[in-house]
Specification:
By secondary structure, the protein is of the alpha+beta class. It has three domains: 16-75 and 210-231, Pseudouridine synthase (2-Layer Sandwich), CATH 3.30.2350; 77-201, 2-Layer Sandwich (Pseudouridine synthase); 238-293, Roll (Archaeosine Trna-guanine Transglycosylase, Chain: A, domain 4). It is 19% helix and 35% strand. It is built from eight helices and 19 strands. Strands 1, 2, 3, 4, 7, 10, 11, 12, 13 and 14 form a ten-stranded mixed β-sheet that branches. Strands 15-17-18-19-16 form a five-stranded mixed β-sheet. The longest helix is centred in the N-terminal third of the chain and has 12 residues, at 28-39.
């Protein structure tokens, strides 16, 4: 199948992003593989893994937009899920084998109070069933062999962790806004421990990645590629004239004042026609450099 057209590339190959509502039972790699067949190109990647049982927003980079995935991976994310108290599993979610049960009686006020300690800058120990590498090996590969290794805690930020009771006294509904790299299943398990027992997560759904929400999603069968210029929603966009565009096309280091930027970046730079030219970041005092140039 030939590559579909989009307004940014005319008759050429597709370059842009696709926002997919991932179905349960698919790995993120499965989605990428299927999208390659649908769109007729192998140059597709994703901006952050979703577990097979999880659903929701998965951002795909297509063509040159795969160069943007390193930035999209860092965007904050929002999740919804159920926390099931009283039962622990080896994967910390409903797909795992039960490893412990606890007789727990929960008071909603106490649940809310304990949840508060996990909001803000915290440290998490990655679960064994994760893609984190220790000594060059992914943890989930070791876990499949029955090997458990020590994992150093990693800093993450939880911006919101709201829990509300349901009709089941041992099941609470949770909404989490968090930084990239946060394991919601660990938040659930740690909350169970804080309440004197244990817990696991079920029905995990990612409702946003940065500015992309479920409202932007399509099913994989109806996948739609949007221009690269729309992939940088939420970033501080800079627009330049044709003269500056010519410098950017050759990867020039520029004065920050020329782009009118300050701070840490990165800054997407759009040309006069609105197409995404490059991503810039600080270089040295008063200057910025291109991290990625998307035009030749």
């Amino acid at each position: 199948m030939g590559g579909r057209r989009n307004k940014e590339t005319g008759d050429g190959p597709i370059h842009g992003v696709a926002i997919v509502d991932k179905e349960p039972g698919w790995t993120s790699h499965d989605v990428v593989a299927k999208a390659r067949g649908i769109l007729g190109t192998r140059k597709i990647g994703h901006s952050g893994t979703l577990d097979p049982d999880a659903t929701g927003v998965l951002v795909l980079g297509v063509g040159r937009a795969t160069k943007l995935l390193r930035f999209l991976q860092l965007l904050p994310k929002t999740y919804e899920c159920d926390i099931v108290f009283g039962v622990e599993t080896h994967t910390l979610d409903a797909a795992g084998e039960v490893t412990a049960t606890h007789d727990m009686a929960l008071d909603p006020a106490e649940v809310a109070a304990q949840t508060a300690q996990f909001v803000g800058a915290i440290e998490q120990i990655p679960p064994m069933v994760s893609a984190v590498k220790i000594d060059g090996k992914r943890l989930h590969e070791l876990a499949r062999k029955g090997i458990e290794v020590e994992r150093p805690p990693r800093p993450v930020t939880v911006y919101r962790y709201d829990v509300t009771p349901t009709d089941d006294p041992l099941v609470y509904r949770a909404v989490v806004d968090c930084s990239s790299g946060t394991y919601v299943r660990v938040l659930a398990a740690d909350l169970g421990i804080a309440l004197g027992g244990g817990a696991h997560l079920r029905n995990l759904r990612r409702t946003s990645v940065g500015a992309f929400t479920l409202a932007d999603c399509h099913t994989l069968e109806d996948v739609t590629v949007i221009p690269m210029s729309e992939a940088v929603r939420g970033f501080p966009v800079v627009r330049v004239d044709a003269e500056v565009e010519a410098q950017i096309r050759v990867g020039a280091v520029l004065d920050a004042e020329l782009l009118g930027v300050s701070g840490k970046g990165p800054w997407p730079v759009l040309g006069p026609e609105g197409d995404l030219l490059a991503m810039y970041e600080p270089y040295d005092t008063g200057r910025v450099k291109p991290v990625v140039v998307l035009v030749g």
